[in-house]
Amino acid sequence: MLSLVVLISGGGSNLRALLEASQDAEFPARVVAIGADRDAVGLSLGEEYGIPTFTVAYPAYPDRETWGDALLEQIRAWGPDLVVLSGMMRLLPPRVVAALSPNLINTHPAYLPEFPGAHGVRDALAAGASETGASLIVVDNSVDGGPIIAQERVPIHVGDTESSLHDRIKPVERRLLIEAVLDIANGHVDLKELSRS
Ligand code: GRF
Hints:
37% of the residues lie in helices and 22% in strands. The protein folds into two domains: 1-100, Rossmann fold (3-Layer(aba) Sandwich), CATH 3.40.50.170; 107-197, Formyl transferase, N-terminal domain (Rossmann fold), CATH 3.40.50. The chain has helices at residues 13-21, 44-49, 64-77, 94-100, 120-126, 162-185, 191-196; strands at 2-8, 29-36, 53-55, 82-85, 104-108, 131-138, 148-155. The protein is α/β, with parallel strands linked by helices. Helix 3 runs parallel beside helix 4. The protein binds 5-O-phosphono-beta-D-ribofuranosylamine (GRF). 5-O-phosphono-beta-D-ribofuranosylamine is lined by residues 8, 10-15, 42, 86-87, 107-109, 170, 173. This is Phosphoribosylglycinamide formyltransferase. One of its GO terms (biological process) is 'de novo' IMP biosynthetic process. InterPro entries: Formyl_transf_N, Formyl_transf_N_sf, GART.
């Protein structure tokens, strides 16, 4: 059984998908803790599913490195096999990436390397693209530039807003995440190997 710590900043819809998948006894992964950098709405899923939560509030620390060290300490307390950044809207300091790599993955609402960064959905719209996508990557010290585990195209419709487009991307992100966790747990995806290539 693959143990997961999931880090969020927002509503946690990807997290909910993982928690729902884990209700199936056959699913080879379990969320052991949920962490956030703020009072994220998605933390309520912890109570709903009986999963412990922790918050390492970014403004409570003097700099990114100190915040990252505190976050790492919390994560390590759970000894997870894999850490999932599921809408955690902060760059992790290199020390944290080095400590967790390659067992650290991130979902992104664009077809990387197109539209990296915090506004992937908005940027795809602003560029006038006719399609964008969803990607799941191994986290490295770049901004959304790590090895791609899986990705899929999503069309952009005339009249789309950031929110209508994001709503079309999110179900794809969720499916990619569940499939990737399955593949990692079953050994069909080797994160170490992916990170070497
Ligand atoms: C996802 O689209 C994620 O890729 C992006 O923010 C969204 C998080 O949504 N960075 P949620 O918190 O899982 O609902």
